[in-house]
Design brief:
Elements: H1 29-37, H2 63-70, E1 75-80, H3 87-101, E2 109-114, H4 126-140, H5 146-157, H6 165-173, E3 184-189, H7 199-209, E4 218-224, H8 228-234, E5 239-242, H9 243-246, H10 248-262, H11 267-281, H12 285-299, H13 305-314, H14 319-331, H15 335-350, H16 357-365, H17 374-379, H18 385-393, E6 397-400, E7 407-410, H19 413-416
Parallel strand pairs: 1-4, 1-5, 2-3, 3-4
Antiparallel strand pairs: 6-7
Length: about 425
Amino acid sequence: ATPKPEVLLTSRHPFGQIPDGVIYIEYDKEREECLRFLQHDDTRYGKISKEHHGSLEWLWKHPQYLEWSASTTSSLLYIEGKPGSGKSTLAKYFKQNLIERLPNTRSSTIAHYFYTFRGTELESTHVNMLRSLLYRILQQDESTFFHFQQEFRNCQRHNLSEWPYDSLKKVLSSFANHPSTKPIYLVLDAMDESEKDDRRSIIQLLCELCSKKNHCNIKAFVASRPLAELKHRIEEPHQVIRMQDENKGDIFRFANDFLNKDLKLTGKILSEARDYITENAQGVFVWVNLVKTELLDYAETGYTEAEIIDALRDLPPKLEDFYKKMFDRLEKGQSRDIGIGIRLFRFVLFAFRPLSVEELRDALAMLDNHNPLYEKFQRNKIHEINRRIEHCGGNFLEIKGKPPRRELHHEIDCFCS
């Protein structure tokens, strides 16, 4: 019998209707399905403040960074810092500027995740972090799909609605033996805000990925407040940068700019105020920003240079004391303002996710202990809600985003932790 010819046709583009009876495989369909299965929550990154102009340039010349960056083997760079020292801003700055600063990384894969306990419930979880990193790796480099295939097919075979946590860890750990020498950058921020359950295991996984014994070149950039379990596993074999030891020049420039441009200070008085702020900040940018707000508020009714210096020296030198002073000021307000302020903080602090300004306005219109009629509800809505938030929430509450989704965020984490 004459053998039937077998023909294999390949094409990256569809070429019309497939005839009946022809066996075909759609290119990249399985990978795209896998990407959809890795969907995750990730709102924190877009809400991190941009660096002040000229800040953080020191990173690219720091000896620890240069050693980490120049290594041709896998390695981990740990950015440790006090609360409010600018770690998240540095992590975002690094991720955004890496390719521009190091053109040879243009073909690299860059995956990031920023933990937060201020977003959705998932955003502090390790399972969400793993989904995010793996999604970005697979999205950027389709050649990595073989790492995912078996575990993804197991999920489909068992008709699972979510990818199991241990399976995600297994996929990420498999990259230790990825055959390509093209670097994979993993940028992780706020490890201290991650769930405590299994945190040690995740840190151990990162350390194993960054072992110099591995074939693949994995570069992990990890930022966090001081964590014993992180410091214990990372400090000796890997590179460490402490934010508060490096950001003094950034604080100097930031203070100089607002004292000169906003308060019009010059000469000796500018130097005195700038040097006082730089020395007393102790590496905490949040403190400096609070000082700026206080001084600008003080200056609105007119001021002398001597009064500005006196007002500056009267401000608490510690962040916790600064927050206490702000709360004390709120407590001395009118009873009407105090009542609204208390409700504001309740809604913002205990909401499942960040509330929009419009949602908060509606929540405040609902009186305690009962549901008002629609007409009364409408009459209870606050006009000029932005002003009310600013007035009753002090400098703790901040509106971020643009219409139609403006969200309310708070700066109380350092005070409450």
